[in-house]
Give the backbone structure.
Amino acid sequence: MSGNIMKDFALGLGSLFYPRLCEGCSKSLLAEEEVLCLNCNVFNLPRTAYHHIAENETYMRFAGRVPVVRATSFAYFTADGLLQHLLHGLKYDDKKEIGIYLGKQLGYDLQQLNWHKGIDYIVPVPLHPAKEAQRGYNQTQLIAEGMGEVLQLPVLGSLLYRTRHTDSQTQKTREERISNMVGAFAVKDTTNYTGKHFLLIDDVLTTGATLEACAQALLTIPHATVSIATVGVAN
Ligand SMILES: [Zn+2]
């Protein structure tokens, strides 16, 4: 019996006892569906289509601050929206499959336009090690892995690291957030990645302070270039 048949059999048995439910509407998922049913995927994830537009909202948040080649976000992040629910499950409810799933959705969009052409590596924004130990994983690493699978690009999960713990950003203004983040990240290896083009990944773009600091760190690598992609974009 082939591995796939065994896998399908096991999945089928599993769903007898634990039916897999859509994270959006709680209907049973079909065998080929993951995380969301087709209806929720198509109608309840409000896509930005930013990858079609060079000077889109995500790109403009970095313009004049840090040089990025391209930037895009997959969907609008709104309070109480489906994307907010999915990211909450990913971060606080141990639903790692959501990270892989969202990374794949972003990857499929970019693949259609060959948006990732010329990019050498995917680099997720690192969590502070204490936070990663507490959660057990870095949710952005999972998003990067899902993307990497679709786009056939390697993921460098430990090239960037946090140099220090940063205070909570939530009560700060944009300028305070940015100054709080200056020098908060560094790269482990600046010699083996000369001239490479990195695709920096995060879950949601808010002020962009974290991504900006990460991009600055990557740009300390000689002749490196950086593009940015996030799953969500918040206003
Ligand atoms: Zn659904």
Residues 22, 24-25, 27, 36-37, 39-40 surround zinc ion (CB under 6 Å).
